[in-house]
Amino acid sequence: MEHSRTAIIDIGSNTVRLVLYKEQGAGIEEFRNVKAPLRLNRFLDESSVMSDEGIALLLEALKNFREVLDYYDVTEVECTATAAIRQAKNRDEIIRKVKEETAFQIRLLSGEEEALYGLSAVLKTMPADNGLTIDIGGGSTEITLFENRKLKYSHSFPFGVVSLKQLFIAEGRMKPKEQKKMAEYIQSELSRYPWLQKAPDGVIAAIGGSARNLAIVQQLKENYPPLGVHGYDLTLDALDRLREELSSLSYSELEKVDGLSNERADLILPAIEVFYQLAVHTNANGLIVSSRGLRDGIMLERIKGGQYKTAADVKRNGIKRLLKVYGHDDEHHHQMMTLMEKMVNGFEKEGLLNVTKQERFIIEQSAALFYLGEYISSSSKSRHTFYLLINSLFDGFTHSEKAYLSLTASFTNNSTLKQYLEEFNGWFTKEEIQKMREYGALLKLCYSLNSSKRSVVQDLDVKEKQDSILITVYCEGNEMAERYQSVKQKRHLEKALHKEITLQFKQK
């Protein structure tokens, strides 16, 4: 299904959303996202019957979505519904009316299916092997426990941000006694399930709009680098401070909080309470925020070819996705990986570099992405590479790894590296920065050895000669461009290693 367009309609209790995707190999790319914050849960009466008004609003939104789909000529559509429709006693009537008036066939997901798709998205885009996932919707909350990247337990709790607000918050400001009652209710629900006593490895992956919005608010408070929210660590201390600061605010005051979406202003307090109570209950370190969730889980299940058995698999798939998105040159990519491996092996054999297994993995991924921004501008490829990578969605990597990789893959000289590092003050040790410099300079030399993009270099041999390094480069074909650029660029590696480098070119 290379480059095909598909869509998912997600009828949630809080938001009804249409997302259009491009499927690219073993990955997916969202390219349009249209939402209607209908809060369907509020149209369920005491008997759990959805009112005519609620059904009419849903039909109006779906008819609008039909126009969007027609405009983009998308015919492959999956229409799913969760708690609000699931809980409605007249759900059969709703499903029938939707089919008659919009031609969409609603697929009603069970709480277990909802949890499983959310977990699937986490396991295919995040590096955690063990932990919990939580997805807070408008009318339900799905929690799973996974070990060794496999589901062990799951439960769909009968409360969400809309229903909690309706149950516990009477006016335009949450009172301390209301917060206390809400916390007690959440804890009582969590306590019913013994498997929730502890989060494996202290990890809770938080899915959904509330988690993303909280992450944005906290990042603005910290003046956080522009790394996005996927993989962001929202610590328990930060969550506690947000809970303390926001719980006393009225809805009108919450609407003015930097980063907080207006449509979530009155729902963020129940969300914070659920996240906080779960973290406390399970002795977790906080939350790892996932921007991938139910819809992505459904889409990723449709695509064949990706391997996700280990965290390293997830990272490699994440890099492949980026290469697809930015149209990287496959032949040059292969040559960079080959030259990098030969160069690192040679330097290690001579005792010139001491590369750990984790560092080798990062070098490999940096080689794959090195100067990715060249397709925008060859004269500013370092800056474009850094900007693209920092602002891209990196499936599988922590934010620290993402920053390290982006800095290494965009290396041009020590001064520019220091400039890029200003956004990450205190993130890395002197030893780690020196490693970035060494690996970045080594990759730049590899890049120079394929200047003409013709893969003329066939082999490399590295030898230490007293206080200098001799690199013999075996070529097939005219190597003039490679010779010129590598002799010019080797100085960066010389400065990093404090050794003179001689390049000797030979025809193979």
TrEMBL record:
CDD domains: ASKHA_NBD_HpPPX-GppA-like (cd24052). Residues 316-467 form the Ppx/GppA phosphatase C-terminal domain. It comes from the Bacteria. Pfam families: Ppx-GppA, Ppx-GppA_III. Gene3D superfamilies: 3.30.420.40, Exopolyphosphatase. Domain 2 (3.30.420.150), Hypothetical protein af1432 (1.10.3210.10). GO terms for biological process: regulation of transcription by RNA polymerase II. SUPFAM superfamilies: Actin-like ATPase domain, HD-domain/PDEase-like. GO terms for molecular function: hydrolase activity. Residues 28-302 form the Ppx/GppA phosphatase N-terminal domain. Belongs to the GppA/Ppx family. This is Uncharacterized protein. It comes from Domibacillus aminovorans.
